[in-house]
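Quarterly update from the structural biology core.
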Amino acid sequence: MDMMRKCGGFCTDHEQRKVWGMGVLYVLGFPILLLMIIIGGLKAAPPGEENPQCPAEPNMPWFLIIGGVGIAFLLIVRIALNKCFRCIKNNDKCCDEVMGCFCEFGCSMVYDIFCIILIVLWMITVTWWVFRHRVANELYDLIGQENLDSFRFSLGDNDTIHNIQFEDPKLDSYCDRLLYELSFALLSAGWLVLAGALIVFLIGKVCYSIICCRLCRNLEGREMDENEEEVRLTQHEHNKLGQSTPAKPDFI
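Predicted structure, tokenized:
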């Protein structure tokens, strides 16, 4: 029952969904980014030099390093911006509660869209560079070699697609097993985390706040709760004063 109530609260309570949803994504996302940076740093060769760790895709470690550092930076900036937006919203001297709420929502939504676009573009590019060496035959069978090659050349992709192997370092199709398998797994996990982030974004911001207009209703609800609390406190004070006032004696 407790688990069902928590799941129901996640779907209906905006604050709980925002905290738990984004918290889970951060907990899953930052370890993936850290692994990308570590593995890339261990297997990378200096820029401009050949990489004996992976001749099939020599820049793969740098893909991981740049992606891990860049996405981590975007997430850290988002956390810092949320802190700043909340401080501004809670400061009555800067703006009232309504304007502060709309300012926080609008700025965070614009930044989230900007980050999602950058991350999706990076994920698509790097996923193709890594996955093509494992699914090349399947793509050729599905699309046709001529059609796929013409599409690649139109995008400026003139690299050779290898059937990746982990045994003979002398061949151009060689790649370190740890580097390639972890890159493959981390990119696959990254797509799952990105899908979760998109679901939280669509439910929390688009559906809940915009389509259902819950952003304004939450403000109205908080104002009503504050007014009801003030009325209760006033009635309580009146009751205390009435009880403490001594009764006047009756004279015959």
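The longest helix spans residues 97-143.
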